[in-house]
């Protein structure tokens, strides 16, 4: 493990790996469930990385252009830290996932997306980035330099080089008015297409073995909108005690006594209750999650989501499984990134989970069959069982991406077993 603090040190590490015939990978926060960041040779931890020389203004890890609202940030900065830095400049990310501990480079490389039928994932907010490529030189990719590489480099799976800085198009700070409530699952599925298209940020969680779904609707408001921030004490009770402490106990009990999972699921679904609050966008988007689990997520054409969820419900009933974790359903607008799960189509996301003490494979493989039948694409950072031959048919620009990889990394300096499986040798 190396922890370079400068771009020059990253370059030297890549050059040294090449001389030794070793592969080299950057690792972020270790949030991915797949082996996408595993290093068979040299591993680089970029959390201490500063911006390259020549980036004007700001501090060691962030530079802000107030006129354009474009922000350049070191690739190893976490989203959590970035949102705090942006707030100090009156800026925010357009959209954010429900976890903010990933590094910026890791989040865009794996396709972190959040939810919002009219909003795209984090990688779509990238307007430029700098790569250390296989020979150790710097390659700047942006709307004015090597723009033809942007559709590949913005979401590159770590296969094209080491991302040392990223320039993001940001927006003025805003707040979210959040409404969370328990509703009937059938009614939620019937209205999913309309709600995901018309609301700013809509998602829901279905608790297997129940007819209930927890819906979350977040509406964007300007930072000057009326509405006080919620007290930290009620949010702590909801997010830490109920969502994490109590739910961990529920999962442990369900693992020990599977027959208790259905009544525990009904209890969890009703215990969440309804709540309404207004807070800064980053505090509403991201939540604390300390219960350990394994996850698989598939991106579907949005119109196929309701039927896919119904099929998963029928599958669980038919197999008699006891599933303690809810199924999460989100949405995103189409984008033009070659390996984005939302590439070329308005998208809905279906995520399934299993508690860390349970074997997920039988459940995940069966759900994956349903997702594939509905045109699904797997999340690059979450468990799935697909390979390059299967994925090529699901991405119109799959071979275009491989051509860029051949150009930037012909010796596969940045490859590992996972990338060989999903991209080919």
UniProtKB/TrEMBL annotation:
One Pfam family from the record: FAD_binding_4
InterPro entries, A to Z: ALO_C, FAD-bd_PCMH, FAD-bd_PCMH-like_sf, FAD-bd_PCMH_sub1, FAD-bd_PCMH_sub2, FAD-linked_Oxase-like_C, FAD_lactone_oxidase-like, Oxid_FAD_bind_N
Keyword Oxidoreductase among record annotations: yes
Domain FAD-binding PCMH-type: 1-173
Molecular-function GO term, any one: FAD binding
Any one annotated GO CC term: membrane
Keywords attached to this entry: FAD, Flavoprotein, Oxidoreductase
PANTHER family named in the record: D-ARABINONO-1,4-LACTONE OXIDASE, L-GULONOLACTONE OXIDASE
NCBIfam families noted in UniProt: bact_FAD_ox
Protein name in UniProt: FAD-binding protein
Organism listed in the record: Cryobacterium psychrophilum
Organism taxonomic ancestry: Bacteria, Bacillati, Actinomycetota, Actinomycetes, Micrococcales
């Amino acid at each position: 493990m190396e922890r370079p603090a400068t771009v020059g040190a990253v370059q030297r590490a890549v050059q040294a790996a090449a001389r030794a015939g070793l592969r080299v990978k950057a690792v972020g926060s270790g949030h991915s469930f797949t082996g996408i960041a595993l290093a068979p040779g040299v591993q680089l931890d970029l959390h201490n990385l500063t911006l390259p020389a020549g980036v004007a203004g700001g501090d060691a890890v962030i530079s802000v252009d107030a006129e354009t609202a474009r922000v350049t940030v070191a690739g190893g900065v976490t989203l959590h830290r970035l949102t705090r830095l942006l707030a100090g400049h009156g800026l925010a990310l357009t959209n954010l996932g429900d976890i903010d501990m990933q590094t910026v480079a890791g989040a865009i490389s794996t396709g972190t997306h959040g939810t919002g039928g009219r909003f795209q994932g984090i990688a779509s907010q990238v307007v430029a980035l700098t790569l250390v490529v296989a020979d150790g030189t710097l390659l700047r990719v942006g709307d004015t330099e090597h723009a033809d590489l942007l559709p590949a480099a913005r979401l590159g799976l770590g296969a094209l080089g080491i991302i040392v800085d990223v320039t993001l198009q940001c927006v003025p700070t805003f707040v979210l008015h959040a409404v969370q409530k328990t509703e009937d699952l059938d009614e939620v599925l019937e209205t999913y297409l309309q709600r995901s298209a018309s609301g700013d940020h809509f998602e829901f969680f279905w608790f297997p073995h129940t007819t209930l779904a927890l819906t979350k609707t977040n509406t964007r408001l300007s930072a000057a909108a009326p509405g006080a921030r919620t007290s930290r004490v009620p949010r702590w009770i909801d997010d830490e005690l109920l969502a994490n402490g109590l739910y961990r106990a529920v999962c442990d009990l369900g693992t020990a006594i599977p027959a208790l999972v259905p009544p525990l699921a009904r209890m969890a679904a009703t215990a969440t209750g309804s709540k309404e609050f207004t807070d800064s966008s980053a505090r509403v988007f991201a939540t604390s999650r300390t219960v350990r689990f394994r996850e698989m997520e598939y991106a579907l054409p949005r119109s196929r989501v309701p039927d896919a969820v119904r099929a998963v419900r029928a599958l669980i009933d038919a197999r008699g499984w006891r599933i303690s974790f809810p199924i999460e359903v989100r949405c995103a607008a189409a984008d033009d990134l070659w390996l984005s799960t939302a590439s070329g189509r308005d998208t809905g996301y279906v995520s399934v989970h299993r508690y860390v003490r349970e074997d997920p494979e039988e459940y995940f493989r069966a759900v994956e069959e349903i997702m594939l039948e509905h045109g699904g694409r797997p999340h690059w950072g979450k468990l799935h069982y697909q390979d390059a031959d299967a994925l090529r048919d699901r991405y119109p620009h799959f071979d275009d991406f491989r051509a860029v990889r051949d150009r930037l990394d012909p010796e596969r300096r940045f490859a590992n077993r996972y990338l060989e499986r999903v991209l080919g040798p």
